[in-house]
Amino acid sequence: xxxxxxxxxxxxxxxxxxxxxxxxxxxxxxxxxxxxxxxxxxxxxxxxxxxxxxxxxxxxxxxxxxxxxxxxxxxxxxxxxxxxxxxxxxxxxxxxxxxxxxxxxxxxxxxxxxxxxxxxxxxxxxxxxxxxxxxxxxxxxxxxxxxxxxxxxxxxxxxxxxxxxxxxxxxxxxxxxxxxxxxxxxxxxxxxxxxxxxxxxxxxxxxxxxxxxxxxxxxxxxxxxxxxxxxxxxxx
Amino acid sequence: xxxxxxxxxxxxxxxxxxxxxxxxxxxxxxxxxxxxxxxxxxxxxxxxxxxxxxxxxxxxxxxxxxxxxxxxxxxxxxxxxxxxxxxxxxxxxxxxxxxxxxxxxxxxxxxxxxxxxxxxxxxxxxxxxxxxxxxxxxxxxxxxxxxxxxxxxxxxxxxxxxxxxxxxxxxxxxxxxxxxxxxxxxxxxxxxxxxxxxxxxxxxxxxxxxxxxxxxxxxxxxxxxxxxxxxxxxxxxxxxxxxxxxxxxxxxxxx
Lengths: 236, 255
Hints:
- Chain A contains 13 helices and 4 strands.
- Chain A is mainly α.
- Chain A has 2 domains: 1-149, no CATH class; 151-236.
- Chain A has a two-stranded antiparallel ribbon.
- In chain A, strand 3 and strand 4 (184-185) form a beta hairpin.
- The model of chain A has no long low-confidence stretch (mean pLDDT 92).
- Chain B has 2 domains: 11-114, Immunoglobulin-like, CATH 2.60.40; 122-254, no CATH class.
- Chain B has helices spanning 155-161, 163-184, 196-207, 219-240, 242-254, and strands spanning 11-12, 18-23, 30-36, 48-55, 58-66, 69-70, 77-78, 88-95, 102-111, 113-114, 122-126, 133-136, 143-147.
- In chain B, a hairpin with a 6-residue loop joins strand 2 and strand 3.
- Residues 1-5 of chain B have low confidence and may be disordered.
- The interface between A and B is large, with 43 and 41 residues.
């Protein structure tokens, strides 16, 4: 499917929210096609053509969309709730491969919320924002997953704006936890507890750096050189 | 977010030493102007000064010379930041004599006035006990004071983007400010932009398609002014879909 870029109207957003609920309840098994191009539920955003191309990772998705849409030149588009929610409709089969009750996650993964606590969790806009802020290399730790997976690194790093906005800290996390061989995060890097040297400890430590060092001006390696010895094992 | 402890002797730069303004953005990216008066802080003259403009995870950093010689960069266009969202600024004074730059002084979460379009309400985080917010109309400019001591809650973000907060609080603020004005400051000079009252009267007027607040000081006039205030609040709620916003927030809570 190739279609001009559109956005959901207020009525479209309402309908999308209702459809997500119906999917969870099992009342429908897929989204109605009206959410893609119905004149009442959507409006055209320009002549850019987008397609529901198959993407293997968030990086693929972000690369595709930033090539299609001039987001760097028009940053206001990043906050266009209707457009990102419509794109979630376009890519819905990939960001929600399981449309059963348990497969359809919270609305904010599909409908872009203005609330900063949920904005990074949007499965289309979230990766694109990280890609724009840090590039493919800088954000690789958070963009290697399939598009339907939010991931612990995204939850922990992207939810903290002072980290997600700081290239030095993002690069430092990648220096520690990125596995160049498997092209994904190292195993055991993000457990649900504060084990020495793991992601949650990293967050604790760099939070303290923030009061002392101008980390924004540092490279990832410079940040890593400040870390205590508990992180050394991740450098091998 | 867990707040940090400042064990480092880093100085806080008082807001009174900083002036930030933003030029209107109708034709493109925002342009900011900044006046920094750091002389009185007793900082090393050769320490570097940076201004960072930011919104969400997007940051633009501008070198502003040294403490002893502030140099305002020519290019201050915020190309990478949105024009319709609230942009904040931070000022950092950095000792760059060692390998890792150390922050000597900082001011953060600075909001800018918009040239020709002043911010109507300043947001000020303060310890408020068990109050979440209150309006302060005793200062030079109306302030929405928000509780700075609610752990793990960023009140700036709540004020800016929480649909629950905005739908419940903003109409109340508008009503309180206009009621204060019509009852206590009925003689505001509408030709000046330096008095906050004239800006709020104009704001109300614009919501009613240009209908000005009724004049007069007798009881009948006060009734008409109260009706005008209520009409403004109603128009504000209509314009911003406040009921819909509130409904959406309750649905999010239930979900």
